[in-house]
Design goal:
The protein has about 575 residues and is an alpha/beta fold. The chain has 21 helices and 13 strands. It binds NADP nicotinamide-adenine-dinucleotide phosphate (NAP). Keywords: Lipid biosynthesis, Lipid metabolism, NADP, Oxidoreductase.
């Protein structure tokens, strides 16, 4: 097992030159002052929850004095960056953010981290799909605030928790599939005059999503939000959350490289430039047309299947894993082509899994990526999988992704809105582990075997489920014939036979869907993220560290991740 160190965030390592933590007295005073201001504000707004929208928009926390103190802090930081790190906390102080996708896994961890560690942030607008403001607020409360993820913040603020949260978070009804990202005009205008940073984490993450839907959210949605970002008067940065798998490369070292400019611009997204340069013949507009023609020509009962198949076929044609990664890649292309003068960074995480350390270890939501296979194995329903055991599975804990993103935002947003050179790749960050600290699939599944042997799952009768060592199959047929040969010879009822057939079909489907990942031969470089880490001060490394090379995978997988998945996804209550 490729373990490197027991500590995730070492204070000093030989390969990283650390900056000394020399926060100036003035900065300490400014920080202290804004913390005191925040406590005062919490008391002041306690009676105003019911009028949240007017509270958020009508000049809350936006007095002239506060604005002045924010710009002063930014100025100081720019000149002292090398001594004091990036200045993450100072950057977020007094800022207004718009975040999409906050009912999803990643953005929730991001929002929690900002509120817990940088309560001086002014306002976070959360774009939420909902029929009206009330429904958006309900989603904010039920799907974000009430999750266990927020328990540390809840403890920290006690009785004032909801007041604090509602003084910072403003749900905004919106939809990436609609013009102006679905925000009502008046609200959009207000946000456009106030917001400093936009973080777009919204996506459909279903690998084989309907092609029209995935295009609409992941590709055209990117164009819509960039178009909106361009209208934001004081925007310092647009942050586009993409995926490492947006790259088509499947072998060797995959560097942090932008798609560059010159791809096709989605019409109706603002500027409509000539489609003179394409990626290997890929024409985004033609893909959109193809999907809408399929919608027109499909019978109602065949529509879903046709559009799912179409997306997968198009992805394969151009060399991407699936509809998701193709439409995410096209989303990036659209961002590059439409951004113009807009300062942009692109964040490309690989496989995001449970939190390593913050706000507590093992928080995860949803049965995602590698977990469905591991859980089926733990439950004795899968003997192994169709996979290359020697491959590096590129996993990154969610809090590492969040910390890297915050550091990148402060670094790029803190600059005087300097637009990156179009040929530069400086704005693309791969938050990945397979070059810096590879987790080998065989090691992961050995750990799964040890874990489920020691802490077995239980069947309906309450008996522990025995499992054997994880098997690796080189073809789907081998996997299925192993499953057939080990299934019981006892006579089964016709109903059980139907269930058995359906499971086999399901495993076949999963094996096909996962194949591009389970036989992936590339490794994602994270050179720029490592360089970013070097810019952090000692204090920032403690609070915002993201050193993937120091993750002890054995500890993370067994002590943190499997427990997290069983507790938060399987909802098991008693685990050894
Ligand atoms: N999870 C990973 O392993 C991983 C890895 C690499 C990159 N990423 C990227 O990271 C980002 C976040 O991923 P995640 O795992 O947090 O995803 P997730 O849990 O599936 O959440 C997706 C979010 O996007 C929102 N969304 C979907 N369609 C929308 C629309 N039409 N309008 C507005 N919001 C919409 C969802 O809102 P609803 O709740 O209303 O559906 C949800 O909040 C994505 O961009 C993804 O591509 C994820």
């Amino acid at each position: 097992m490729g373990t490197v160190s027991l500590n995730l965030f070492p204070i000093i390592s030989s390969r990283q030159k650390l900056n000394r933590n020399r926060v100036s007295t003035d900065q300490r005073l400014l920080r202290k002052k804004s913390i005191t201001d925040t406590s005062l504000r919490v008391n002041q707004i306690s009676a105003k929850i019911s009028s949240l929208y007017s509270c958020a928009y009508n000049g809350k926390n936006s007095g002239v004095l506060e604005k002045d103190s924010v710009s002063l802090t930014d100025g100081q930081l720019n000149s002292e960056m090398h001594d004091d790190g990036i200045g993450i906390v100072d950057f977020f102080c007094g800022k207004k953010l718009l975040i999409t996708g906050a009912t999803g896994f990643l953005a929730k961890v991001l929002v929690e981290k900002i509120l817990r560690t940088m309560p001086e942030v002014d306002t976070i607008f959360l774009l939420i799909k909902a029929k009206d403001e009330e429904a958006a607020m309900e989603r904010l409360m039920n799907e974000i605030i009430k999750t266990e993820l927020f328990k540390c913040l809840r403890e920290k603020h006690g009785m004032l928790f909801e007041n604090f949260i509602l003084s910072k978070l403003v749900p905004v009804v919106g939809d990436m599939r609609k013009t102006n990202i679905g925000i009502e005009e008046e609200v959009a205008n207000r946000i456009a005059t106030e917001v400093d940073v936009i973080i777009n984490s919204a996506a459909t993450t279903t690998f084989d999503e309907r092609f029209d839907v995935a295009l609409d959210i992941n590709t055209k949605g990117a164009a819509r939000i960039v178009n909106f970002a361009k209208k934001c008067e004081k925007l310092k940065l647009y942050v586009h959350v993409s995926t490492a798998y947006a790259s088509r490369q499947r072998q060797g070292k995959i560097i942090e490289e932008s798609f560059g400019k010159g791809h096709y611009v989605v019409s109706g997204a603002g500027k409509n430039e000539a489609p003179d340069k394409h990626v290997l013949g890929l024409n985004i507009q033609a893909e959109i047309k193809l999907a809408s023609e399929m919608v027109e020509s499909s019978k109602e009962n065949e529509m879903d299947r046709n559009l799912k198949d179409l997306g997968m076929r198009r992805a394969q044609k151009y060399g991407w894993q699936n509809t998701y990664s193709l439409t995410k890649a096209m989303g990036e292309m659209v961002v590059e082509d439409t951004k113009g003068e807009l300062p942009v960074i692109i964040i490309r995480p690989s496989i995001i899994e449970s939190t390593l350390r913050e706000p507590f270890s093992g928080w995860i939501e949803g049965n995602r990526m590698m977990d469905p296979i591991i859980l089926l194995y733990g439950k004795g329903k899968l003997p192994g999988f169709f996979s290359n055991p020697d491959m590096a599975l590129d996993v990154v804990p969610a809090d590492i992704v969040v910390n890297s993103t915050l550091a990148a935002i402060a670094k790029h947003g803190g600059k005087e809105s300097k637009v990156e050179d179009n040929n530069s790749n400086d704005h693309v960050y791969q938050i990945t582990s397979s070059v810096a600290n590879p987790l080998i699939t065989r090691d992961l599944l050995d750990l799964a075997f040890q874990h489920f042997s020691l802490s077995p799952c239980f069947d309906r009768e309450g008996n522990p489920i025995q499992i054997s060592a994880f098997k690796f199959f080189s073809s789907i047929e081998d996997l299925l014939s192993d499953m057939k040969s080990t299934s019981s010879n006892d006579e089964i009822s016709p109903r059980q036979e139907i269930i058995r057939r359906k499971s086999i079909e399901h495993f076949k489907y999963m094996a096909n869907l996962y194949q591009p990942y389970t036989f992936f031969d590339g490794r994602f470089d994270n050179n720029k993220v490592e360089k970013l880490l070097e810019c952090l001060s000692e204090e920032e490394r403690k609070d915002f560290g993201f050193d993937v090379s120091s993750i002890d995978w054995e500890d993370y997988i067994t002590r943190v991740h499997f427990h997290g998945v069983r507790k938060h996804v399987m909802k098991e209550t008693a685990l050894k």
